[in-house]
């Protein structure tokens, strides 16, 4: 019945009227040639009911009321797919009648079913885990590129792919004693109600279809085993790896490790929040040396967190607050303090902003207002665009243009490795290219990196932009950069970041 269930979809039944369903039941014994004249969804229903009747010993010829017999038997079924079919058919046939108490109990059971795959859903999964008091094993399977597959095949073939994935999982794991559940959009969970020392070989597979040809399905797997295994600790195993091929098993050591990590994140989140409130987020400044004039007229403003006598770099806290609302507050504090520091000197200062910051109208207004407040020439401020920028967003390009219109200079930070949308340079028209440190650090030892730097310098100068080299740590590197025509140099050869804006 599994294959027949998967030929019959929810939409096949929902598209039927009450009259069409009556027609389907009346045509159960009709000659196949006549059935072919009926609509596709009616044919599917007739074929399914006929096969169901054979498998359940229902005599369609001699039964006095085969329709009621079939519906009654479907309603009593323990198979969730069959219950769903009963629900859909019965709902159409009895639209004008009220459900009795017995039917309401079956509707409750239907709440356990994922109607797209005919598999049990998360609610059923959680109930089943709670009901098993002895050793059990949970496998979580996550389908990689699920969203991308849906985007590509959504209209015509997505249902086919989803059903084939479900069939594959059922065919592989039901025989091994696992119940299969579809818990969310991209994940399927498997539960075995006893623990065994299995060799978990979870293989990727392909879906073959004469129209689709071949679709590769990649799976990631996590395992949790034992008497006290829960949805939560299986999820802990899930959160600890992103490798497609890896089978990751939950254990107490893993939970302790992640708990410690969570406490560290929580501690830094609180530290940053308090530092923002108490104005302890401060800029430190590093020289940017002009290689043409042999002078210091630019600085980079770098975020630091002060705590008593200690000073923390972003390495300690930035990734730990990335997905919190504190990032915007951190940016606002740095923008205000950096522009404020420009009022007593004539230096140019650069500040790092993300794509999200640049698109944020409030951040733009803050920059504009702070420049006006302190009477700062906007051309002295340089916005360095961080490397994770996508560059394909039209809104982002317009936001850059908005900054340039008020005179702010633009620099592309970590140029080369982070700049994937290379062709968009012409749209941005940056004033500076900051060469990625990975090229500069080994420039005297790797001829390919040397040639790459030469090419970037030529490219930038042809666009009337200046070149800044970071990670200049030795005189040998500096002399080579001057020889090649690098306009500015930065790093520890000249200065470490300091709180005071002075030379």
Keywords:
Alpha-Beta Plaits, single chain, TIM Barrel, elongated, alpha/beta, 503 residues, 20% strand, disordered N terminus
Structural description of this entry:
- The protein is elongated and about 105 Å long.
- The chain contains 22 helices and 17 strands.
- It has three domains: 110 residues, no CATH class; 132 residues, Reverse transcriptase/Diguanylate cyclase domain (Alpha-Beta Plaits), CATH 3.30.70.270; 220 residues, Alpha-Beta Barrel (TIM Barrel).
- The strands form three sheets. An eight-stranded mixed barrel has the order 9-10-12-13-14-15-16-17, surrounded by four helices. Strands 3, 4, 5, 6, 7 and 8 form a six-stranded mixed beta sheet that branches.
- The N terminus is likely disordered.
């Amino acid at each position: 019945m599994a294959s027949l269930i998967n030929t019959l979809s929810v939409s096949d039944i929902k598209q039927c009227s009450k009259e069409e369903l009556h027609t389907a039941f009346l045509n159960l014994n009709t000659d196949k040639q006549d059935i072919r004249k009926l609509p596709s969804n009616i044919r599917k229903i007739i074929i399914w009911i006929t096969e169901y009747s054979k498998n359940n010993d229902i005599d369609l010829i001699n039964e006095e009321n085969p329709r009621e017999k079939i519906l009654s038997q479907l309603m009593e079924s323990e198979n969730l797919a069959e219950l769903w079919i009963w629900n859909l058919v019965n709902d159409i046939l009895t639209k004008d009648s009220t459900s009795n108490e017995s039917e309401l109990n079956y509707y409750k059971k239907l709440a356990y079913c994922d109607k797209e795959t005919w598999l049990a859903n998360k609610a059923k999964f959680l109930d089943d885990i709670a009901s098993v008091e002895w050793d059990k094993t949970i496998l979580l399977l996550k389908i990689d590129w699920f969203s991308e597959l849906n985007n590509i095949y959504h209209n015509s073939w997505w249902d086919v792919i989803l059903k084939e994935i479900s069939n594959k999982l059922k065919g592989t794991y039901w025989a091994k004693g696992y119940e299969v559940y579809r818990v969310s959009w991209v994940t399927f969970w498997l539960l075995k109600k006893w623990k065994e020392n299995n060799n978990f070989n979870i293989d990727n597979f392909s879906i073959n279809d004469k129209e689709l040809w071949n679709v590769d399905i990649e799976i990631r797997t996590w395992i949790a085993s034992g008497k006290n295994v829960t949805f939560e600790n299986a999820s802990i195993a899930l959160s600890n790896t992103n490798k497609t091929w890896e089978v990751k098993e939950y254990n107490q050591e893993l939970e302790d490790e992640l708990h410690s990590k969570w406490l560290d994140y929580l501690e830094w989140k609180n530290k940053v929040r308090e530092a923002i409130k108490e104005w302890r987020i401060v800029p430190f400044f590093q020289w940017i040396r002009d290689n043409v004039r042999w002078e210091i007229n630019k600085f980079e403003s770098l975020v630091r967190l002060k705590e008593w006598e200690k000073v923390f770099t972003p390495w300690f806290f930035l990734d730990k607050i990335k997905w919190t609302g504190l990032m915007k507050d951190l940016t606002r504090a740095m923008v205000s303090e950096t522009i404020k520091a420009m009022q007593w000197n004539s230096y140019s200062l650069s500040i790092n902003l993300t794509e999200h910051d640049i698109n944020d109208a409030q951040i733009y207004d803050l920059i504009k207002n702070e420049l006006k407040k302190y009477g700062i020439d906007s051309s002295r401020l340089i916005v360095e665009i961080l490397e994770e920028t996508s560059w394909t967003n039209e809104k982002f390009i317009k936001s850059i243009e908005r900054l340039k219109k008020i005179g702010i200079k633009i620099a592309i930070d970590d140029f080369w490795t982070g700049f994937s949308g290379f062709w968009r340079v012409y749209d941005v028209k940056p004033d500076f290219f900051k060469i990625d440190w990975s090229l500069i650090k080994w420039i005297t030892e790797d001829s390919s990196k040397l040639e790459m730097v030469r090419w970037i310098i030529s490219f930038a100068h042809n666009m009337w932009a200046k070149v800044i080299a970071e990670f200049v740590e030795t005189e040998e590197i500096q002399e080579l950069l001057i020889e090649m025509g690098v306009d500015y140099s930065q790093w520890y050869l000249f200065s470490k970041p300091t709180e005071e804006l002075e030379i």
